[in-house]
């Protein structure tokens, strides 16, 4: 049974490696930008699944595909730019996957992971403007729809993962993080990301998959607990000479009357 499983894994890795070489061959060809985009969507679907995700991510990082973006007209030039931006997103997604498989000894290191994951979300969301320009010139096809859908799924999963851990750190174990300023900045980052996600969510309305996705997730944080973290941050700032005023996080629209407990989410490594 063990030998059979190992043979399956080896065959799977061989297939993914050959697929990546085939994709690299087409990406270097002239024009055929819709074909290139479709192949990138296939790569994205695989890396977003749990099938050999870590191995495939390492392959993508080590291969470093090159895309021929020389175009003969304005429409092709837009698709070429989208291919380039989309590949950048996929490459960063692969990089984050390998990062999450590493061990981090300090809680502060975990916060940097969250900021890196948040940046990944922004890279995906920033493709919206280019997508809107393309859609204004032609009717959106299935390739564009799949690109948008799986990008939204990625961003939603990452955002919920960050938000649940931030909630845990602030409400259940704020002393785990010595740098309260960084913790509050991460909380504000979640709020900013939620606003961006809402815009991206509304953009999905023009696609048939809109009824398959959920609006940006929201987890309420006890106002009293958040205030205590803010006070701790102020105490930390007292010894400084001529301390600068630090912006407070955005107000929290919730009361203590209704509060839901969420279990401690998986750590980044366990999530994989």
General description of the model:
The structure is a single chain. The protein has ten helices and no strands. It has 272 residues and is mostly helical. It folds into two domains: 1-101; 136-238 and 246-272, no CATH class.
Please compute the radius of gyration using only Cα atoms.
Answer: 22 Å
How many helix segments? 10
Order of helices and strands: HHHHHHHHHH
Summarize model confidence as the mean pLDDT: 79
Distance between the termini: 24 Å
Instruction: Classify the beta-strand content into a percent band.
Output: under 5%
Which term fits the overall shape?
A: globular
Give the total of domains: 2
Biggest sheet descriptor: none
Structural class: mainly alpha
Topology, element by element:
Blueprint: H1 2-27, H2 33-48, H3 53-63, H4 74-100, H5 107-125, H6 128-137, H7 142-171, H8 180-203, H9 223-237, H10 268-271
Helix pairs in contact: 1-2, 1-3, 2-4, 2-7, 3-4, 4-5, 4-6, 5-7, 5-8, 7-8
């Amino acid at each position: 049974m063990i030998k059979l499983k190992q043979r399956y894994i080896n065959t799977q890795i061989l297939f993914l490696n050959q697929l990546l070489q085939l994709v690299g061959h087409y990406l270097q060809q002239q024009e055929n930008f819709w074909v290139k985009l479709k192949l990138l969507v296939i790569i994205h679907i695989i890396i977003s699944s749990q099938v050999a995700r870590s191995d495939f991510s390492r392959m993508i990082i080590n291969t470093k595909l090159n895309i021929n973006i020389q175009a003969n007209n304005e429409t092709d030039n837009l698709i070429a730019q989208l291919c380039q931006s989309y590949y950048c997103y996929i490459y960063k997604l692969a990089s984050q996957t390998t990062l999450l498989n590493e061990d981090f000894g300090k809680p502060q290191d975990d916060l940097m992971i969250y900021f890196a994951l948040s940046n990944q979300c922004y890279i995906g969301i920033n493709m919206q403007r280019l997508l809107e320009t393309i859609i204004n010139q032609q009717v959106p096809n299935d390739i564009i729809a799949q690109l948008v859908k799986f990008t939204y799924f990625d961003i939603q999963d990452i955002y919920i993962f960050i938000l649940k851990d931030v909630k845990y750190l602030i409400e259940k174990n704020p002393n785990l993080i010595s740098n309260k300023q960084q913790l509050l900045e991460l909380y504000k980052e979640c709020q900013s990301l939620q606003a961006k996600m809402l815009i991206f969510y509304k953009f999905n309305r023009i696609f048939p998959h809109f009824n398959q996705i959920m609006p940006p997730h929201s987890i309420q944080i006890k106002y009293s607990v958040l205030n205590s973290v803010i006070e701790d941050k102020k105490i930390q700032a007292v010894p400084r000479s001529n301390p600068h005023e630090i912006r407070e996080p955005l107000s929290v629209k919730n009361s203590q009357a209704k509060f839901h407990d969420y279990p401690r989410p998986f750590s980044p490594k366990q999530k994989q």
